Fold each of these.
Amino acid sequence: MNRIVNKLNENKKLLSIYFTAGYPEPDSTVPILENLERSGVDMVEIGLPFSDPLADGPTIQQSSTQALKNGMTTKKLFAQLENIREKVSIPLLLMGYFNPILQFGVEEFCKKCAETGIDGLIIPDLPVEVYHNNYQKIFKKYNLVNVFLITPQTTEERIRYIDSISDGFIYMVSTASTTGAQGSFGNTQKEYFKRISRMQLKTPQIVGFGISNKETFELATRHAAGAIIGSAFVKFVGKNPPGKIGSFINSIH
Amino acid sequence: MNTYYADKKGYYGAYGGAFIPEMLYPNVEELKKNYISIMQEVSFQKEFQQLLKDYVGRPSPLFYAQRLSEKYQAKIYLKREDLNHTGAHKINNTIGQILLAKRLGKSRIIAETGAGQHGVATATVCALMGMECVVFMGEVDIARQAPNVARMKMLGAEVIPATSGSKTLKDATNEAIRDWINNPEDTFYIIGSVVGPHPYPDMVARFQSVISQEIRFQLKEHENTSKPDYIIACVGGGSNAAGAFFHYLDNKEVKLIAVEAAGKGIDSGESAATSQLGKDGIIHGSRTLLMQTDDGQITEPYSISAGLDYPGVGPQHAHLFKSGRARFLSATDDEAMQAGLELCQLEGIIPAIESAHALAALEKMTFKKEDIVVVNLSGRGDKDLNTYINYFNF
């Protein structure tokens, strides 16, 4: 069984954390992962830095630019993660744009993920249809869960389609926006969370974008299986050593 | 047939498609479903054609360049897109897209710009239609293209500096896409070239196809044939070339020549010759050839011409290159500047430095005396005076 699927079966509100590999220091990746697990985080998305992250807001863009300046590459990340499963047991996903994966070779990339102990992928600019027609077989061969995004503008028909080919969780984008903190959620978001919950999808949903603190985490997870914190955490690790990660996580749940 | 045009999913051979995050899906899908039917509406065509005629000043002349012809020993014609309102071919596309945006009920227009020509063309049509206009422009480009920034502001546009990444055209494009993600309801994104997710490359090529449509009937008047032997156009993203090639794609007797910017030389590390230096990949939602590192990070191109320094090329051009339908040449900064000056002195026309790259190809080719050669003169050189002055020490 895939670690993500097992984790979702635990029936608790999951806290998932995103951070950019190679930020703030070239070798931050492993210490951050160890501290996240120690702090009780349920799942982690490790960001592959990209030169042109067009779905990301300023915080993640800046971390990506810095990581690339630090010399981070896909190859280096796999090297850093080589023995990660001796140290960390929570589910790990890689999240990144499609071009670096394409250059690495999609099959080679998936194979490396499997060898490393990566459980899933989130590739925002790999369209659902292209995945379905061209890559699903490869992902399944390496037991990788592929996670799709839905937004408040996604039609019901399309959500059903995405649900039908999803096997881990659905990444529910909270608002029509790039990544980054919003402060709080308004009625539009609350209505959207309820609407999706009423659809009774087979795939659990985890909410992302705009989650930055205890309040937004609790609101987001009222109807969903969990929530992802990205930009707020990236800001935190930009200013604090990995050893302090526990205090950030404790402030959320 | 029609193998060089977009298929239903927006592919040209292996290139094209729509590699976009889900947040953009509804907007791109709406456009994809509607663009052809709207463009075919009688009322749309009437308004579009009327504006091209009365506002842009079309048809643009097809000028027989006698002294240039004598020098290169062929019959050389210049398609005078430089005489369009706002000084380049860009306005053909912005007029088309803003009419489409209106019919889709959008009230706010966004655009990216590199040198500022597309930004000016967009700000112009927004003023004409009374629509809100936001143009994203790299911070570095804002500093080196001050007159165009001022033009956009005079025309009522808000110019927002792109401060991420390399702070040039590709980053301005990223910022425009991010704005579109953040404003999914009321905003229409007018892309300036044959790049971006399907249907943009096809839509922009169709709006620019007025160029080849006019070449056909104008050449008939001059030469009693609608087919030239060669069409030469410069390629950055590739919109003027896409427009000049459009009606000739399936007619292989017409040789298509695309000229990229070699910058300081293809192997100098400062170049924008994507067909030579690029590899398959994804940029701004399209699968195409692009300049990138082994790790798949998009690199910054260089050319003296701000309109040609895009790290990718439109997916149709990638296909024309790979299939051999078009021949890709390149011109260095020096070759383009000399060719630009030559046109000034032989024909009394100051070309945009982008278009000067197309002219520089003449020197690299051998013609038969009776060959008919059309060079697409995509823009005028007023905007480039500073660069010309600095280069030649006038």
Note: Strands of chain A lie at 14-20, 43-47, 92-95, 120-122, 145-147, 149-150, 170-173, 205-208, 226-229.
Amino acid sequence: MRFSHKHLLGIEPLAPHEISMILDLAERYVDLNRGRAKHGDALAGLTQINMFFENSTRTQASFELAGMRLGADVMNMSMQASSIKKGETLIDTALTLNAMHPDLLVVRHPHSGAVDLLAQKVNCAVLNAGDGRHEHPTQALLDALTIRRAKGRLHRLSVAICGDIAHSRVARSNILLLGKMENRVKLIGPPTLMPAGIAEFGVEVYQDMAEGLQDVDVVMMLRLQKERMDGGFIPSEREYYHRFGLDAQKLAHAKPDAIVMHPGPMNRGVEIDGTIADDINRSVIQEQVEMGVAVRMAAMDILARNLRATPQEVLA
Amino acid sequence: MTTLLCNARLIDPEAGTDSIGAVLIHGAEISAVLTDVSEIEGARARAAHILDCGGKCLAPGIVDLGVKVCEPGERHKESFGSAGLAAAAGGVTTIITRPDTLPAIDTPETLEFIRRRANEAAPVHVLPMAALTKGREGREMTEIGFLLDAGAVAFSDCDHVVRDTKVLSRALTYARSLGALVVGHPQEPTLSAGAAVTSGKFASLRGLPAVSPMAERMGMDRDIALLEMTGARYHADQITTARALPALERARRNGLDITAGASIHHLTLNELDVADYRTFFKLKPPLRSEDDRLAVVEALASGLIDTLSSMHTPQDEESKRLPYEEAASGAVGLETLLPAALRLVHAGHLDLPALFRALSLNPAKRLGLPCGRLSKGAPADLVLFDPDTPFIMDRYTLRSKSRNTPFDGQRMQGRVLATYVSGQQVYGRE
């Protein structure tokens, strides 16, 4: 089995066996990360550049740690501060970086499709760390790994994704991944936060938490951006919490062993009740962070193997 | 000085015929259209020049309503010289320019500049539209009377929809008193603000800001209500959705003075062509669903939509090589209009006379121009084309200064062989 992609730009182009391949390798890195000597050499000698055009603490830290644990030389570039302010175009930035011969480029950008555009202009492998409202593939992969470890499988599960689906790249990548692995996906949220044409994605759409959470195995909560809270998309924070915030009462409709997930950072008391987020029997939010490092190590490892291979080998 | 173009397939949009015959040109005019063999022989004996068309199609030159030439302001994107050459190569004999330049064409002085530059530089006829409101800002109407005297053929704020309905109603009332044609852009501006694609599954999958196709119908409904109020002469620049068609049909039936156009890109492409964020497919309004495309094609074939144009909008590489949301909208179309429109003929949607009704006759009629016809006394603005030759479009062969065509690398069928403006050949394919 081969991983037949040069870049990791989204879940959309991946085949189910390629998703499993990343997850299987990530399992091994979970063990490594839990050991005393947390060091591998899969990326030894390679240069990894993290380019974040949008604020991020956790994703950037996770990619940085993943690269360092596998022996890569890691450089962080915060792009809001530098050349963008001077009017340089994305493509010029890409070409400049390309001339420095990086091997792995991790990119986050506020515009959908910007990472695809950048990947066309560079020779190295590009990992999408989130582009606009498009995709956030490593988040979906780490969610998948978390689910697989908690539930023992990644198929025929009933998964609810709740909240601001319309503006969420995490939701898009998760819908695609869970669909490819043959799970039942339920989306729950106010209609103003549902993207158009969502019914055509092969998902079920609910506007009521009690109904939507009925007998699900996994509850994924999404972050509600502060700027969308007052008046524009929903009437108010408190009405949102009342109708869509996850509390014990709503969670009771899910299966007794259902797990609760959140990509972070959380708004306690807006989309999730603090006591549920901290409930070690239900919440796997900390585990998600742990899986994040392992999945990113696996993704970069697999892309680096393709970098070393000849094009014929990659496509074989 | 007479020239005989003989052995041609004459595409006559007025009569709706497609027959073998000859056209006799005297000076700048068509002096006879001949289909009778003995008449052709007689003309052959008298004509100074004889040109055998080899059985290819001869039709009235295209009148392209709504071309953007980037003078003044952005001559690096397109000049009258380059647009004129592109038009000639595309069989377009009359360009109707848009006023959405920098600055907008909103005074008689800038309009005169355009006319002078165009006459110097372009080998085809160039007729300018002027802005409806000053600076296309939707606040105060332009000097419609002076602009008409200076040669404006119509008035339009292009994609800057006049938001203030009172301003628009006054401008329409004033325009009506002078018999001026107003070209509107049916679109609800607040709903479509910031949109890059049409809402639906594709937009959601790509995570791009989207507008509902309903915004077009809302704009259409408002403008039609204003026409009922004011009785103005109105042309909708582009109808792109099925939802806007019933309103148009009703307005037509109620006797309002309304016509409508379509752009070639919306008739031959759909939203899925954007694929992986290909910005050359970013248009305004955005490409629509396949159902909408087919509905608009049908409306063109039935005559509900009157005109077909290129909506030629040059953009340089820098403004297109950006993330999709940030990239500029629009595509060049002067040189690809006819080959792309022939796709509709090859697909069996309409025949050649019907196509040239939309490309040449109807826009000329709407603007009160004598061209667009294949008849005695009409200007000798003609296009000779082969409807069948296949080729692969290469954008670097375009004569436009900007090469932002969505048809790059695509298979096309049919190309222009020669173009005549006022009896003079302005383009010939070797």
Note: The radius of gyration of chain A is 19 Å.
